[in-house]
Amino acid sequence: MKRRTFITLLGGAAAWPLAARAQRTERVKRIGIQSTLAADDAVAQTRNAAFFQALQQLGWTIGRNVQLDARWGSIDRNISRRYAAELVALAPNVILATGSMTVGPLLQTTRDIPIVFVHVADPVAAGFVQSLSHPGGNATGFTQYEYGVTAKWLELLKQIAPGVSRVAVFREAAIRSGIGQFTAIQAVAPSLGVEVSPLNIADAAEIERAVAAFARTPNGGLIVTGSGPAVRHRELIVALAGRHRLPTVYFDRAFVAGGGLCSYGPDLVEQYRQAAGYVDRILKGEKPADLPVQAPTKYELVINLKTATALGLDLPPTLLARADEVIE
Predict the structure, then answer these.
(1) pLDDT tens digit string along 79-90?
(2) pLDDT at 23
(3) What CATH number should be reported for the domain holding residue 214?
(4) Both 123 and 40 in a single domain?
(5) What's the domain count of the chain?
């Protein structure tokens, strides 16, 4: 789906033409979307295009038998709560929610409207579902990864840059998964001879100051854990890592495609295609409580060889052979 077409689609969803409203029948379903990313964000467009395309393949066409109500860019907790209340007031048949920052406020607002979530690290610990196999409430969806996987980011960083002895971990401390990811990394740090410290993701100016201060001492590296704000500030984070010559491992391929060094994680775009399947089943009468939460089955290692060369890193041939994708 091309960028112009996607933006046009979103514009139509935000202000539905009166003529289309008049032509609706009772068969039209309403899908709500709440995302931490802005509507014009390139990553958001790619992910949502996959969701819309999968919906269309399942027989749902926006403007014909389904209406879209969307709220974008809810990285602030107060805004997220307001958007959740606005969406629930519209009484959609199902809501697609991206990340813990959106799921929490939605579940505080409604226990009736079905919610399908994506990119949530630990929905059980967060209280979103009773268990992965039996969600038990009005929410189900797709987990981002287990916390144990995040420890591999530090192991990977040491393979790429053996001289690294200090690592700053970007996290979002306001959500449970931000703390959980850092804790898992911290647990393996002593065995790798690395000192780790958290960098709480805030606004752009604070991110720039924090990275500059960390880079003043040698032998440093970065890990960027999963969160909406990290994706939103990804261009700045990648630029700072390059400017200060800090080897960095990211949780998502989008950072590496934008010039980052390396990522290890699931295909997050695929989760949106899978989410469309759950939305389809709910619109046809199934209950979220009966749809198990699904975990990723494959993790991808992506390496940007051009960035490695710019940082003066000589990557082990065995690591390059393991990579699912090498960007040159």
Answers:
(1) 999 999 999 999
(2) 45
(3) 3.40.50.2300
(4) yes
(5) 2
